Amino acid sequence: MQHPMKERLFQLLLIVACALVVASMVSTVACGSDGSTSTTAGTAQTGADTASGGSDAGASTSVRFKTEDGVTLSGKLFGSGSSGVVLAHMYPADQTSWYSTAKRLAQEGHLVLTFDFRGYGDSEGTKEIELIDKDVASAIQAIADAGATEVALIGASMGGTAGLVATAQTTPIPVTGVATLSAPVEFKGLSAEEAVPKLTVPLLFIAAEDDAGADGARQLQELSGSGAELKLLPGNEHGTELLEGAHADEIWGLLSGFLERVLP
To answer: What's the Cα-to-Cα distance from 7 to each of 4, 12, 98, 201, rounded to whole Å?
Structure first.
C-alpha cells in the first residue's frame, strides 16, 4: 500500500502540472492571433491594412502591379466605386505623402490609388525618372482592374509631369482631367513639352508663387493653350507640402472642385 504522504505529494504535483499546461495553452491562444487579414487576387498580392501616416491615413488595401517593361510597383487602394483618382508622388518622397489626401478623397466617394514610382518605397526597380510615365500608365490599368471606369490624375512635382505625359498616350479607361502641384515641364529626362499641347482634357496647374514650381505651372499653361486653369498662391511650399501649408484649405477646395467637374 502506498504511503499517505507520498500519495498526497503525488496529487499536488499532478495538480501543478495540469495548471502549467492550461496556462501555456491560454498564452498561446492569446498571443497567436493579432486580428490581421490578407487576401490574394490572381498573381497580385493584396491585403487589408491600415496605411502608415497616422490616424488620417485610414484603411487601405495593398496592391502590386507590373509596368509594361516588367517592373513591379507597390500601391494602396482607398475607397471604392467606379470614379477613380490616381495620386502620383513628388521627388524625393513616396506614396505615403498622399495617404491623408487619399483617405479624404475616398470619403468623398472616390476609388483612390497611391503608389511608389520605380525605385521608391516598396516598389522594385531603380530610380529611372525618365521612365516613370510608364508607372502612371500601369497605375491607371491597376485602378481600372479594381473597378474604376474613368479616372482623374493628381500629381505632385515630377508626379504631375509624369501624369501629363501618360495622359497623352492610350489609356485603358478615360482620363477625364489632370491636376498638378508644382509640376515642372521637364525633370531629370522626363518631359511633358510635347505631350501637353496634345491634351484635350481639363487641366489644373497649382503652385506657390515663391517656389520654383510657379515657373513650371506658367510654362505648362502656355503649352496647353487657353484651356488650362492656373492658380498661384502665396508661399514657397512645394508639391504635397501645399496641402499642409497656410493655404491648404484653399488648395483642397480647388482640387475637390476640379474632381467634381471632371468626375461627375
So the answer is: 5, 9, 70, 90
Across the range 12-22, mean pLDDT stands at: 41
Residue 186 maps to which CATH number? 3.40.50.1820
Is residue 192 a part of any domain in this protein? yes
Q: What is the pLDDT of residues 119-165, one digit of tens each?
A: 999 999 999 999 999 999 999 999 999 999 999 999 999 999 999 99
* Strand order across the beta sheet in which 111-115 lies: 39-41, 44-50, 59-66, 72-78, 111-115, 83-88, 150-156, 175-181, 203-208, 228-233
| Contact yes or no for 71/123 (Cβ under 8 A) | yes
**Cell numbers that stand for 208 in this block:** 506657390
- Residue 254 falls inside a structural domain: yes
- Give the chain's domain count: 1
Q: 38 with 61: CB under 8 angstroms?
A: no
Identify whether 50 is part of a domain. no
For the stretch 28-74, pLDDT in tens is 333 333 332 222 222 344 555 544 433 333 589 999 999 999 999 99
Q: Find the domain containing 108 and state its range.
A: 61-262
Percent of the chain with pLDDT over 90: 76
In this prediction the pTM is: 0.80
